[in-house]
Design brief:
This protein has 111 residues and is of the alpha+beta class. It has one domain: Winged helix-like DNA-binding domain superfamily/Winged helix DNA-binding domain (Arc Repressor Mutant, subunit A, Orthogonal Bundle), CATH 1.10.10. It is built from five helices and three strands; from the N terminus they run ααβααββα. Strands 1-3-2 form a three-stranded antiparallel beta sheet. Strand 2 and strand 3 form a beta hairpin. Helix 2 crosses helix 3. 15% of the residues are buried.
């Protein structure tokens, strides 16, 4: 995969990406974005305009819990962790994504 994926193709994937990286442990916003960027080889680079609204929506839905913590470098940071509800949501989104991507691959490949 070269370069960044077009924004239109990424709509709806932010939730799956956020939940996936938070499955491994608590992170604050910038770390979440960096982890997504790193895991995707730079193909996915969520900006503040998409990441923070997704984090707030997931928190409101009960998929994430958040807490403020002091930082030894700069301002306090808001850390996010996945809940049991978030793990269930991740499983559902992962299943949906697998079905979508397999169907898309078949359609593109002509099989």
């Amino acid at each position: 995969m070269h370069g960044r994926i077009r924004a239109q193709l990424l709509k709806g994937t932010t939730t799956l990406l956020v939940l996936t990286v938070l499955r491994d442990g608590e992170l604050y916003g910038y770390e979440i974005a960096q982890r997504i960027r790193g895991r995707s080889g730079g193909a996915f680079a969520p900006g503040e305009g998409s990441l923070y609204p997704a984090l707030h929506a997931l928190e409101a839905d009960g998929a994430l819990e958040a807490s403020w913590r002091d930082s030894d470098r700069g301002p306090r940071r808001r850390y996010y962790k996945i809940t049991k509800s978030g793990l269930a949501m991740l499983a559902e989104h992962s299943h949906e994504w697998a079905a979508f991507s397999q169907g898309m691959a078949r359609a593109v490949e002509g099989n």
